[in-house]
Design goal:
- Helix 8 packs antiparallel against helix 9.
- This protein starts with 6 loop residues before the first strand and ends in a 10-residue tail after the last helix.
- Helix content is 45%, strand content 14%.
- The model has no long low-confidence stretch (mean pLDDT 89).
- The chain is of the alpha/beta class and 256 residues long.
Length: 256
């Protein structure tokens, strides 16, 4: 992997891992990182042998956020662009996080350290989040840039933890500890630093044992049910279980 890539891809027994690897700069989300993530996502989507995607980092930070020196480029025009041109580029910039959310396979973030700004916005677009005890989570945009975290930092975080905590993090610009993040439902579990990847890969291998179509439909229905009323949500559950149960596509691991 080219050292200028700022990240690397590894594969092992059905698990594809992207590691942010620019620790001297605290693993910012740069265009190079985005390119590597797209490469991994394209492989993950198109290959049946890849079952789980894990995103992690090296060094003392998972990510300090967007690389502000490189934030304007092909996907995000500079301030001289018209508003509609900027919003078009902004939508394009969001496609990666939208794709992480839409992939019908599990995506896991293993935050090895503080997860801030664009790093956190990427994390909340994924299905599962784990971190170390010294990890803190934050969206500093309102304080640092005078802007809101507009790449899912408001919309996705509100779905996860509600308006109460989203106002604390995205409106007041307050960081939260690993324990508080777990308490509010932002992360699923907190592991010692020397156990993080072992525990995450154990969890990933457990997911691999589940029928792929069952995982895919579970993810689709859970996300689709979030904004629905109860009656429509029940219908979605019944529709999903028709092929899985009635037609026998979904099978317990023990029966395969």
């Amino acid at each position: 992997m080219d050292e200028a890539a700022h990240a690397r891809i590894d594969e092992d027994d059905g698990i594809i891992t992207v590691t942010l690897d620019r620790p001297e700069k605290l693993n910012p989300i740069s265009p190079q990182v985005t390119t590597i993530l797209w490469e991994a996502v394209d492989a993950f989507c198109s290959r049946a042998d890849l079952r789980v995607l894990v995103i992690t980092g090296t060094g003392r930070f998972f990510s300090a956020g967007l690389d502000r020196k490189l934030m304007h480029g092909d996907r995000l025009p500079g301030p001289e662009a018209a508003g509609y041109e900027w919003r078009r580029g902004y939508r394009s910039h969001h496609l990666l996080y939208d794709e992480l959310e839409a992939i019908e396979k599990p995506v896991i973030v293993a935050a090895n350290g503080p997860c801030l700004g664009a790093g956190m916005e990427m994390a909340v677009s994924c299905d599962f989040r784990f971190c170390t005890p010294d990890t803190h989570w934050g969206l500093p945009e309102v304080r640092a840039l005078g802007a809101i975290p507009g790449s899912g930092g408001v919309s996705r975080l509100t779905r996860l933890v509600g308006t109460h905590w989203t106002k604390w993090i995205a409106m007041a610009g307050r960081n939260v500890s690993a324990d508080d993040a777990r308490m509010m439902g932002l992360v699923h579990d907190v592991y010692p630093a020397d156990e993080l990847m072992v525990r995450v890969y154990e969890f990933a291998r457990e997911l691999i044992e589940i029928e792929p179509e069952s995982l895919a439909l579970a993810k689709l229905v859970i996300d689709a049910c979030d904004p629905q009323d109860r009656e429509k949500a029940r219908q979605l559950e019944r529709i999903a279980n028709t092929p899985l149960v009635h037609m026998g596509i979904g099978k317990p691991a023990a029966s395969r």
